[in-house]
């Protein structure tokens, strides 16, 4: 074991840490380290990271346990801590690196070697046929994949993009429906739901027999609050969904037979000609997608179509499918049909609907005709990933991207496509050949440039090996889970005098106080190549009534500067400002001025230190001066740490005049960049964006048509919004980020 001191602070120096051993976990992929700590009360968290094998470009699999979490799970018995390490290579001498962080911001590191036993893998996950080995390209946004099938009693499994097996289920179940949620695996089996934590603990969390549930099938997908299970009941086959929370409690139910029956009756059609009781497979529900932007549920019926429901009322909003199928013969259903323009194809026999980063609909189009319903519709004999832009005003669904693989892969059933970071895809051809005794499953990864990063093939029978594959992020897993939300905001702009100061605003929603760090930077911006920086920024914080509640000139003078330091947020220049505050729910304003009248570029930042509380930072905005060149208004925000968050980003100018702001930007434009600096979305006039109705639905319509707004469904990561003036115009503008939750 090697112990290294990293940061010079007393708690790390004064605490003795010794790794005394490790014991095997439930599988060779899990081990439990025994650690002796002289004073566990000083620990903030412990992080482990597993070195990838030599030559791998995957990010190390890593997990961070908050000290409180270790206590709550019974892993801590001072002075001893039992630390679960998951994601180890089987049959290998793993190097595991540990970082111990303390409450005062200090830290230590150590490392240890864990040699694991081999693992008998009957599914062949660990030994694929390599059609294309993982390239050395590091642009792919994901490194880990959850695969689910029914080829063993250790379902599901997690592999890395090198094709190595890194984790398997421990519930002894052979099933085909599972998902990754709340940093754990959830499996539906029969009328029950089991949660498997990554440390191998399996817990039965739900039994739904009282609802008439007989079997969980196909998918488990993310819902509005929890996860949505596809289930069979005593009366309905492959046509019922239920949403449950992380503890398994039922939140909502949808019966597709009842919904369609009521719609057809109201429209004057006879539902008995289309809707059938169990065991007839007239609908074949195989997945759903919740769209937070318009509070809707998109339901995939392999036999018929994709159907969008209002989440609360279950009313049908639109239907997308093959008009040569049976459903289109009924006027009551046909009136909801979206038109597919020339040059686009409707999905048929589809699976795995999801919402992409740019609020488009992504789906795996199997190209398969109906099995039960007649007329059966089109048959293409090739599968494709397709993305559609839905325009509800024009009632159209237009293909904006597809991956047809030269129309060479026939996958008539099962399969999936999911987008991770923008334009990074994972495609699963679950049944590559229609001749099942010679069938294969194929996994394929695409980066944002459209390059194939890896391609692996696995033997299968039917869809038993990889029915569905999901990108999962195990490179920085945190316990407890930090759910999808906008966490931090930083905005850079020109600070001068009068109205031309930098103003940050944010709203805390919920019931609990929230711990925040607020910073104003200037001199340290020179390391980013900026020359005209604010020499001595001053920060003031006001509540919703305009009362000054905090102020800071130089960060070391703040009474809570130790909180700033402990969270690694110490400004690098002593003239810069920072304050740590615990704030009740409400609206707040942060104003950054210069101590002297000399103008310069400054940066205002808001950091959420308590993302796991019952409150959220629902809205973050910054007003500043927009110039040209480096003097544009640049706002950065972080969506953390897991899953995707739906946000509305706005750039306002003309409407600020009604609030007494002078010299406003007459026509702002908005551009969104990802962490690589690539443009992922842009807008000039908000009504020109196809998702403008979602902006309006959420009560966020700008009052001036020249202002900009975008609705985006963004995965965890860092993003930048840049506000500029059309044709180089200058003036005061406001950039805003709203978290829809």
- Going by helix content, strand content and strand pairing, the class is mainly beta
Task: Give start-end ranges of low-pLDDT stretches.
Answer: 1-9
Work out the radius of gyration: 27 Å
How large a portion of the residues is in β-strands, by DSSP E?
Answer: over 45%
Give the terminus-to-terminus CA distance: 45 Å
What characterizes the major β-sheet? 14 strands, antiparallel
Anisotropy-based shape: globular
Number of helices: 6
Quaternary form: single chain
Determine the fraction of residues in helical runs and give it as a percent range. Answer: under 10%
Number of strands: 49
Could you report the average pLDDT, rounded to the nearest whole number?
Answer: 93
Question: How would you sum up this structure in a few lines?
Answer:
This protein is 5% helix and 47% strand. With 741 residues, the protein is mostly beta strands.
Topology:
Elements: E1 2-5, H1 10-14, E2 17-24, E3 30-37, E4 43-50, E5 61-66, H2 67-72, E6 76-77, E7 80-86, E8 93-102, E9 107-115, E10 129-132, E11 144-148, E12 157-160, E13 165-168, E14 178-181, E15 184-189, E16 192-197, E17 202-207, E18 213-222, E19 227-233, E20 240-244, E21 250-255, H3 256-266, E22 285-291, E23 296-301, E24 305-310, E25 316-321, H4 331-334, E26 351-355, E27 361-365, E28 384-391, E29 396-403, E30 416-419, E31 425-429, E32 440-446, E33 452-459, E34 468-472, E35 477-479, E36 485-495, E37 502-510, E38 514-521, E39 537-543, E40 548-552, H5 561-566, E41 577-583, E42 586-594, E43 600-608, E44 615-626, E45 633-652, E46 668-673, E47 679-683, H6 692-697, E48 708-725, E49 731-740
Parallel strand pairs: 5-35
Antiparallel strand pairs: 1-9, 2-3, 3-7, 4-5, 4-8, 6-7, 8-9, 10-33, 11-12, 11-34, 12-13, 14-15, 15-16, 16-17, 18-19, 19-20, 20-21, 22-23, 23-24, 24-25, 26-27, 27-28, 28-29, 30-31, 31-32, 32-33, 36-43, 36-45, 37-42, 37-44, 38-41, 38-43, 39-40, 39-42, 44-49, 45-48, 45-49, 46-47, 46-48
